[in-house]
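#struct-pred
JK: can someone run the complex with 2-acetamido-2-deoxy-beta-D-glucopyranose? inputs below
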Amino acid sequence: MHSLAVLLPILSLSLPLLVNAVATCNVTTACPTSAPCCSEFGFCGSTQPFCLGGCNPLHSNKLDSCSPNPICKSAVHTFADNSHVLSNASLFDGNASAYDFIVESGNIMNTGGDLAMLLTKENGGTRISSTRYLHYGTVTARIKTGRWAGVVTAFITMSNVKDEIDWEFPGNSTTEGQSNYFWQGLVTQPNHGDITKDLTDTFQNYHDYTIDWQPNTLTFLVDGKVVRTVKKSDLTVDGVTQYPTTPARVQLSLWPAGTASSAAGTVQWSGGLINYNDPDYVSAGHFYALIKSINITCADPTPPGADITSYVYGPNSSTNTPAVLLSNTSTNLGGAMGMHGHAGAGLQLLLVLALAAGALGQLL
Ligand SMILES: *[C@@H]1O[C@H](CO)[C@@H](O)[C@H](O)[C@H]1NC(C)=O
Ligand SMILES: *[C@@H]1O[C@H](CO)[C@@H](O)[C@H](O)[C@H]1NC(C)=O
Ligand SMILES: *[C@@H]1O[C@H](CO)[C@@H](O)[C@H](O)[C@H]1NC(C)=O
Ligand SMILES: *[C@@H]1O[C@H](CO)[C@@H](O)[C@H](O)[C@H]1NC(C)=O
Ligand SMILES: *[C@@H]1O[C@H](CO)[C@@H](O)[C@H](O)[C@H]1NC(C)=O
Ligand SMILES: *[C@@H]1O[C@H](CO)[C@@H](O)[C@H](O)[C@H]1NC(C)=O
Ligand SMILES: *[C@@H]1O[C@H](CO)[C@@H](O)[C@H](O)[C@H]1NC(C)=O
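RT: done, structure tokens with the ligand placed:
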């Protein structure tokens, strides 16, 4: 029931990300030209961790300071081994053909058919992100969740401007899943959280959890059965439609909500403080959640042509709705876009996905 946008900074303590940071960025202060990219954690820089996945265009120096976001590609990802998962995210160069997922923080294992995300007392939890983005589509994760108080298993989509769609599983209950969604990181009161009950043990059994994100409806399913439908047309507040509309990565995580540094409400929501004397932890040396497969089916409103490589942001298409454009610019650092993550030179915006055709006119 909590926005990971708010809670994930817990996982960001991995220091390499911060070493080069010269400034912080937020809704009132964008990054300077010397360090143009605003990382997902609100720090400015000009290199890989700042300009790639999660880079927020709205708080960066320019709308095109962030590296372009690799285009969606439909695929069923399975984990006979972890060869398509890059375990050291700082080695990622933006080439989404080389890896399907990167480990943003924490540690993974392979159990012979499952990717295991580990949580230890020391590692602050594990989060993996898809290297590609999707701009609408259907994502199904076949997983076994954790089962320990304070330990949360999550399967979400997260955009660079913090449009977010969640399935979350607080570990003290293995019979329910919680769905939620956020528009540009806005935490509403009450929030949009909903609980799906009466699942068979989510630790013992695989279930298929689906986020079916289409331009006008958002549907949550368990094992192919619809459990919740949200309509975009119902979400207009003061003339602004608060519905996720921007390209997002698929992220799965096992994270420690039940720690002394978490907000009291977060600890309570997750079922209490984590017990590292739990027999499961003592015997294995970690807590874990298992991923059997991740099925991604793209549903781009305008099907991208063969030469399209990425999504980029353009000027707002309507009030508070950034335009999403298709581009043929390389997503690789060191590729066509140069070493510093500027997408500016040579950027060709080919198609306007957003409603306002006018946005294209302004850009060209
Ligand atoms: C935004 O960042 C600026 C510059 O670092 C800082 O002075 C300001 O307090 C921040 N504002 C918010 C709302 O966090
Ligand atoms: C990840 O790669 C970076 C850059 O090469 C290196 O400095 C770091 O030690 C690596 N981290 C791990 C855990 O291997
Ligand atoms: C990206 O990775 C693929 C697969 O490993 C490789 O064939 C290709 O050459 C790489 N592209 C660049 C520009 O490095
Ligand atoms: C999990 O923890 C929450 C918050 O403390 C509590 O309301 C709920 O009853 C607990 N569920 C189970 C199955 O223990
Ligand atoms: C993947 O998801 C799509 C869309 O929901 C579905 O049509 C397809 O059958 C799924 N593939 C597998 C192997 O489950
Ligand atoms: C464009 O939309 C963003 C995201 O909601 C908002 O922060 C920004 O103020 C808008 N810009 C303009 C010029 O309306
Ligand atoms: C992108 O498309 C334009 C127009 O067709 C072309 O001139 C340019 O070379 C392409 N750039 C890349 C990196 O493919």
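RT: quick notes.
Helices lie at 4-7, 16-19, 48-51, 264-269, 279-284, 358-363.
The pocket of 2-acetamido-2-deoxy-beta-D-glucopyranose (ligand 1) is lined by residues 23-24, 26, 28-29 (CB under 6 Å).
JK: thanks, will look after standup
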